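[scheduler] slot 2 assigned
[scheduler] job type: sequence-to-structure, two independent chains
[scheduler] chain ordering preserved from manifest
[runner] begin chain α
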Amino acid sequence: MSELAGFQRKYLRALAHPFKPLVQVGQAGVSQAVVDAVVAALNDHELLKVRLMRPEDKKGMAEDLASRAGAHLVGLLGHTAILYRRHPENPQIVLPKRAKG
């Protein structure tokens, strides 16, 4: 999985701004059930917000969730992580590209 450029993460954060969190991570942390829910949501939406409830290390938890779901961590706003994973067959989001030169 290639790394996203800063301007692409900014674009995705702007797209996710009006979204409500679809998945919540509770006190049990990043369990397999949570990862499965995130994977299913990413297959449906490509871009989603995940609410982290009282994490001790929110950045670490968000990075762990993103890596286990095979997604990019686009941003972390408060206790809400924004995750992106391109749909393998039918992508809906077209990431911007920079012109070379």
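[runner] end chain α
[runner] begin chain β
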Amino acid sequence: MDAEEILRFADNLVFDKTGKRLDDLQRAVVRGAWQRKTYPQIAKESYSTPRNIRNVASKLWQLFSQVLEENITKSNFCSAMERYQISKISNSGHFNLVQKGNINVCTETLHHPKTSKNSPPTQTSNEDDTQQKPRLDLRDAPDISSFYDRKSELATLQQWIVQDRTRLVAILGLSGIGKTNLALNLLPQIQHQFEYVIWRSLGTSPTLFNTLKSLLKFLSNLPEIELPASTDELLSLLIDKLRSHRCLIILDDVQTILSSGQIAGHYKPGYENYGTLFNLIGKLPHNSCLILNSWEAPLDILTFTADRSEVRFLQLNGLSEVAASAILKDSSLLDEEKWPTLINFYGSNPLYLKLTAQTIKNLFGGKVAQYLSYEPAFLSDELMPILQQHYQRLSQIEKQAIAQISNEIEPVSFTELIAKCQASPAESFTAIQSLERRGTIEKLCCEAETFFTMPPVLKEYVKIVAG
């Protein structure tokens, strides 16, 4: 038997005994033992630690000892498996044998239904994962607020996570656009597909070490004192858990570990090792999914090409006019014929509309027409700090570029924008690309040229601070 044949044989033995399939690390141990590799070699090939591989192997040999009814160790695993297979085939009366040393070994390959590495785990009648209740840790998840039509986005995320088995999903967009609310409303639709569901906020900028400890305390059900003491060991243990269990992890407010004053996507000093976590989750095969909610995407996950399903990006834009109008209706605003103007000014951003609606009610008795009669439109004290956070994150060259766009009534062409920026074409190109990734400018593609514009509310803010 070659390594793949022994894996199929071992997997079916375990399934017959326990009703469960071998997980990725158990398969790595079986394959490595069959190929006479050491535990450190197996650990290196599977991105784990020797200590963890030994622990997995120890439990696995105990399991095979029960199945084969003899004491199994790494050293006798190969011979024991060959003896057991021969005894089973001999008892069945259907076999073809060839000589291998002094042992007759069956040459007939056992055929079993093939499953894709991305297919759901095989289930028994008692183990329908659509009926299992996952273990939930949603202590960092905020309460669900009013949710307005995001059916298309929900369907897309469900397709990516459940059907396509995407490993990492980044939900991106400006503050208040509804990233967190979208993820919260997605959970009831997909959580039954997972064994563990964890929501963590990075709003306080925890180190990767502390984030990993928090995740593993729940996934491993271990006290903190029993967890590894280094970030690398914690990272290896988390990857092991994501392989052996189907886990859904949501990290909210990821932008807080990213740097301000630079091109989008750079980490704050001391937080660069989050990139290792995101890269491993995107690249390595496992059964789980990580959702990132952020104003911008970390640069390292942007290296995953668009034609790969392992990592996906959902840029969340404003609501439809119908959904945005529902917000204004719920806020009891007047002058419905003026609502489209208000919605367009705030880019259909749910939070911006809610804050503005409250201002209109307080100052103008809900009269939208009266509010819009003031030009330039004033921005409320509640909204100004939010816009300021976005502006302060920009690099100097980005601020120059966005100031140029804010001064234009019509969308500005790429060629014109490059010419007006006080920087080299290469620097200007990088800045424009970064602004688009942040969602602070919008790209309009025409046949002959690419144009850029920005939501009127951002234009107004930039004029205030840069004027």
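[runner] end chain β
[qc] chain β: The longest strand covers residues 196-201.
[scheduler] slot 2 released
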